Amino acid sequence: MNNAITAIRRNGVALKGNIETKHTLPPSVKSRNNVLRTSLDLFANVMHCQSLPGVQTRHKNIDIMIIRENTEGEYSSLEHESVSGVVECLKIITRNNSLRIADYAFRLAREQGRQRVTAVHKANIMKLGDGLFLQCCREVASGYPDITFDSMIVDNTTMQLVSKPQQFDVMVMPNLYGNVVSNVCAGLVGGPGLVPGANYGQVYAVFETATRNTGKSIADRNIANPTAMLLASCMMLDHLKLNGYASLIRNAVLTTMNETRLHTADLGGQGTTSEVVQSVMRVIQSKGQLISEL
Amino acid sequence: MMAGKAWRSAILNLLRQWGLSGNAKDKLKAQEVSQVVGVLMRETPQPRTFIRGMQTVTLIPGDGIGPEISSAVMKIFEAAKAPIQWEERNVTAIQGPGGKWMIPPDAKESMDRNKIGLKGPLKTPIAAGHPSMNLLLRKTFDLYANVRPCVSIEGYKTPYTDVNLVTIRENTEGEYSGIEHVIVDGVVQSIKLITEQASERIADYAFEYARNNQRASVIAVHKANIMRMSDGLFLRKCREAAEKHKDVKFTEMYLDTVCLNMVQDPTQFDVLVMPNLYGDILSDLCAGLIGGLGVTPSGNIGANGVAIFESVHGTAPDIAGKDMANPTALLLSAVMMLRHMGLHGHAKNIETACFDTIRDKKVLTKDLGGNSKCSEFTDAICQRVRDLE
């Protein structure tokens, strides 16, 4: 892990698959994914959930950007057994990190021309912790009068997401709720095989699949959906300002997604990973002229 | 344990009490027989509820639309000839000696005596200086398990069909311990408490519930990859309970995986057991799948045999007193209560009457897409339930 982190510090950018955490091991063995995120201070996890035309889902026209605080909250890994049989797990919310993520959310919303930011919280119960988060969001919101700001309690949010997901635009939230909401939204637009995710810090950026699954049960069978990872790599290319290549590959991937015949098992089809990749490559190669212009 | 003939007649007696069969065993369904077996195998002595005759239940109508939906339920129960006597009590926060907030002593006494309660929505005024009423009730009766069966309602269309799962949420500790501190200015710490005792209690309850209600599997929902010690302890207790209930299948699943799969294919889930926060989120998510809080039943199980069934929607002050409310959630919670008491025949009749009325679409309240009054909807159900007798 240390070598990996050093390499990322050197290169500034990484593309990453999920590393399995054996949760039956003792607490001293931390999740390596979490260690990577906190060591590099990748404070913002960004996920763009969009309904894809070629994919059948129960809800249509979803276009939600989820911005999740990625370093603290419930993922602070601070636990102790004060008395035998009683475990305390600390959730840390800081003003600095809350302001930082709220600011990131509003700046991104403005950049992307989005109208509304919704803060997701449980401040009615966690009055101090989520209360602080909410307060920071409000403070930042006041500096962006062009963007509407509202808030919603997390349990109501999930209920709204499964009935009327179209009402959401940009959502910002602490770590754990981000975990829940990201997975709900990924499921709504078609599953873990489709949605890319990005982790941004001040200096470094790491790109991965949004729902961070190892997919152990389907590994090595040539049935995994490469879409999420491919789209993540396109996000990486955009980050590196290689926008031409990013668009080229992204369009090829989305074109391939429209072919129901090529859909992998997670989308209800029988296509293989290699078939999908071949198809993407073919679409790219057919655009020969465009490549030479890049 | 009884043997042979004694066992057989105990089963037949219980079935008769539940109004399920007059004579022949062959008219019974296997399901009903194993329900009885589940009851007989329970360690706890038979509560008074299983004795034939009228059973008194504490009714807390609540605020806003509470009184009108409670009347609706009472009317339907009367039409169904359910052997229930209602003892109405009001629950408000009062300050006892020493300034401690509590519920009125007559409400407490009634519930302690009757053990079973049905509750409508209670309002919690902001800045009232006292904790929420629901929290007070929870603490007073040690309501440790919140149980929400989520079943798709045939007449009420949502994007999800064939949902049939139950969320069992630990309701006393976890992230809702209410312990928070400001460490230094700008740094807040919220404490999530997981104890061996509470985890064991909820795990045992979940497996007992599965067994008593013919549910094939229990899934423990957790995030032990990140919260190794706390969720790890919770999981350990679930595993131990699983060992004691080998007839029920047990699996563990990450919270995020559950969420991901739940919105894609909820039919793969059966009984889910989890700590407080995940339970709060997931139970509301599942309610959303079947149509929202207006149609979702809920039950709270406490220590000492207390069980309070409730509707989980709000008080809807804007429609209160206008005969517009939808009593479905409270009614289905009352049906859950009947099942808990072993009155399966009456439960089935009332539930069928309710679902048939909704499926028929002729008389529906506004939130269900119709424009009938609450009283009209109630009367339609009463008529059907009388016809089912």
Structural class of chain A: alpha/beta
Portion in beta strands of chain A: 15-25%
Distance between the termini of chain B: 36 Å
Average predicted local confidence, pLDDT of chain B = 89
- The number of helical segments of chain B is 12
Helical fraction of chain A: 40-55%
Number of DSSP strands of chain A? 10
Largest sheet of chain B: 10 strands, mixed
Distance between the ends of chain A: 36 Å
Structural class of chain B: alpha/beta
SSE diagram, text form:
The complex is a heterodimer of chains A (294) and B (389).
Chain A lengths: L1 H10 L1 E3 L16 H8 L4 E7 L12 E7 L3 E11 L2 E9 H17 L4 E6 L7 H14 L5 E6 H10 L6 E4 L1 H15 L6 E5 L4 E5 L17 H13 L3 H16 L14 H13 L2 H6 L1
Parallel strand pairs in A: 1-10, 3-8, 6-7, 6-8
Antiparallel strand pairs in A: 2-3, 2-9, 4-5, 9-10
Chain B lengths: L3 H14 L12 H12 L13 E6 L5 H14 L4 E5 L5 E2 L5 E2 L2 H10 L1 E4 L13 H9 L1 E9 L12 E7 L3 E11 L2 E9 H17 L4 E6 L5 H17 L4 E6 H8 L8 E4 L1 H15 L6 E6 L4 E5 L16 H13 L3 H17 L13 H15 L1
Parallel strand pairs in B: 1-2, 1-5, 5-14, 7-12, 10-11, 10-12
Antiparallel strand pairs in B: 3-4, 6-7, 6-13, 8-9, 13-14
Helix pairs in contact in B: 1-2, 3-10, 3-12, 6-7, 10-11, 11-12
Q: What tags apply to this protein structure?
A:
heterodimer; A: 294 residues; alpha/beta; two-stranded antiparallel ribbon; 10 helices; B: 389 residues; ten-stranded mixed beta sheet; two-stranded antiparallel sheet; IsoPropMal-DH-like_dom (chain A); NAD binding (chain A); Isocitrate dehydrogenase [NAD] subunit, mitochondrial (chain A); tricarboxylic acid cycle (chain A); Isocitrate_DH_NAD (chain A)
Structure characterization notes:
The complex is a heterodimer of chains A (294) and B (389). Chain A is of the alpha/beta class. Chain A has ten helices and ten strands. Chain A has helices at residues 2-11, 32-39, 95-111, 129-142, 154-163, 175-189, 227-239, 243-258, 273-285, 288-293; strands spanning 13-15, 44-50, 63-69, 73-83, 86-94, 116-121, 148-153, 170-173, 196-200, 205-209. In chain A, the strands form two sheets. An eight-stranded mixed β-sheet of chain A has the order 1-10-9-2-3-8-6-7, with helices on both faces. In chain A, strands 4-5 form a two-stranded antiparallel sheet. In chain A, strand 9 (196-200) and strand 10 (205-209) form a beta hairpin. Chain A is globular. In chain A, 44% of the residues are buried. Chain B contains twelve helices and 14 strands. Helix content of chain B is 41%, strand content 21%. In chain B, helix 1 (4-17) crosses helix 2 (30-41) and helix 3 packs parallel to helix 12. Chain B has helices spanning 4-17, 30-41, 66-79, 105-114, 133-141, 196-212, 228-244, 255-262, 276-290, 328-340, 344-360, 374-388, and strands spanning 55-60, 84-88, 94-95, 101-102, 116-119, 143-151, 164-170, 174-184, 187-195, 217-222, 249-254, 271-274, 297-302, 307-311. In chain B, the strands form three sheets. Chain B has a ten-stranded mixed β-sheet, sandwiched between helices. A two-stranded antiparallel sheet of chain B has the order 3-4. Chain B has a two-stranded antiparallel sheet with strand order 8-9. At the A-B interface, strand 4, strand 5, helix 4, helix 5 and helix 6 of A face strand 8, strand 9, helix 7, helix 8 and helix 9 of B. Strand 5 (86-94) of chain A pairs antiparallel with strand 9 of chain B, so a sheet runs across the interface.
